[in-house]
């Protein structure tokens, strides 16, 4: 399918872009690549500007964006790791995403400006854009995103895909039950023949942020300032103090110079992710049970584990063990998890990279011409 000036949307001359916005970070890069070009924290520093450049004056730092001209209440927006981790007087850390969808569009525009100008370094009108979305994204949010891409960024083509569908594609499946453990929540979404069954999707608020909050409480009680989140581990079986105590401890040095070995507490913290009513295994059971009986054998035979939290050591093995104890005896259980933690974390983005590069997909894009003629109604027609 060709766009304006004969551009081939999925060809080698003009690369389609894949955006995967999440609660923890936004992944962006070119289709056909095996990793995102950038993984940008989903928070932006907003603070007063000490100096506002004139319109023709160049801002020296590429990670800083100015808001408008000299009006007396000017703000600077600090984006990406090197900027938001620098303490600044009056700077507030804000996020543009809530409950899995964009909540602050002004901030999100700042992020997209940064992606195009500093990461892709190419005009947006040259690149079709594929965005991932959560299954519970509202219609107004979907329409606002399409409006933004076509009307502000002049994208030649646009497409929206459910992240669970893309995670299944990344694991070589068109039918799967996708268990996505992210920062703000864990969800289980049935995908059948490339379509997410929204009515059967379930989620819980137990995610990486909850785990980090529990770690902070534990460390405060121990009078320790901080524990790197990556040092937490998942026990392959339900937590038992005696068994966990037998595992050799892991030594950690904190930023302040404090040293300590951590043993059973590394495993005890993660038990909340597997509790009976909202744990990962229970979500899978609920999602599968909400689907037609004819579809359940294929879903139980294709459980896909993905998301940032699934990168925790021991997570895939524990999920498989928990599901084995709950799966109906009449169905053959098979769990799938990419061998690399990064592949599990970037599963939706990788699925988008694969999809946007397939020749047969090129006719699926919503072109700018179609949008001009049919408006936002094109979304429901082409991106169900």
UniProtKB/TrEMBL annotation:
Enumerate the PANTHER family for this protein.
ACTIN
Recorded family membership: Belongs to the actin family.
What protein is this chain from? Actin-like protein 6A
């Amino acid at each position: 399918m060709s766009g304006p000036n004969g551009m081939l949307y999925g060809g080698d001359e003009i690369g389609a872009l894949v955006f995967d916005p999440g609660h923890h970070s936004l992944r962006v890069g070119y289709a056909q690549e095996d990793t995102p070009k950038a993984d940008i924290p989903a928070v932006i520093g907003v603070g007063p500007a000490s100096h506002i450049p004139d319109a023709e004056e160049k801002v020296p730092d590429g990670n800083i964006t100015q808001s408008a001209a000299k009006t007396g209440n000017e703000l600077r927006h600090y984006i990406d790791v090197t900027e938001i981790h620098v303490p600044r007087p009056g700077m507030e850390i804000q996020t543009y995403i809530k409950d899995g969808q964009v909540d602050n569009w002004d901030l999100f525009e700042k992020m997209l400006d940064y992606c195009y100008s500093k990461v892709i370094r190419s005009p947006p009108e040259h690149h079709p854009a594929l965005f991932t979305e959560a299954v519970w994204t509202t219609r107004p949010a979907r329409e606002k995103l399409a409006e933004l891409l076509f009307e502000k960024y002049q994208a030649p083509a646009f497409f929206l895909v459910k992240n669970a569908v893309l995670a299944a594609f990344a694991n070589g499946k068109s039918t799967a039950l996708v268990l996505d453990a992210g920062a703000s929540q864990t969800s289980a979404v049935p995908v059948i023949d490339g379509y997410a069954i929204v009515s059967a999707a379930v989620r819980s608020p137990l995610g990486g942020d909850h785990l980090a909050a529990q770690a902070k409480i534990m460390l405060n009680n121990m009078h320790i300032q901080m524990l790197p989140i990556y040092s937490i581990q998942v026990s392959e079986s339900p937590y038992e103090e005696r068994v966990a105590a037998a595992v050799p401890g892991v030594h950690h040095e904190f930023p302040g110079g404090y040293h300590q070995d951590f043993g059973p507490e590394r495993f005890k913290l993660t038990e909340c992710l597997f509790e009976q009513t909202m744990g990962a295994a229970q979500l899978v059971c609920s999602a599968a049970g909400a689907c037609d009986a004819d579809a359940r054998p294929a879903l139980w035979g294709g459980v896909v584990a993905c998301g940032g939290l699934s990168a925790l050591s021991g997570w895939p093995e524990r999920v498989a063990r928990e599901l084995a104890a709950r799966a109906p005896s009449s169905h053959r259980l098979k769990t799938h998890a990419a061998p690399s933690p990064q592949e599990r974390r970037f599963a939706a983005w990788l699925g988008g990279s694969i999809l946007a590069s397939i020749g047969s997909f090129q006719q699926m894009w919503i072109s700018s011409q179609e949008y001009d003629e049919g408006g936002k109604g094109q979304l429901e027609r082409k991106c169900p």
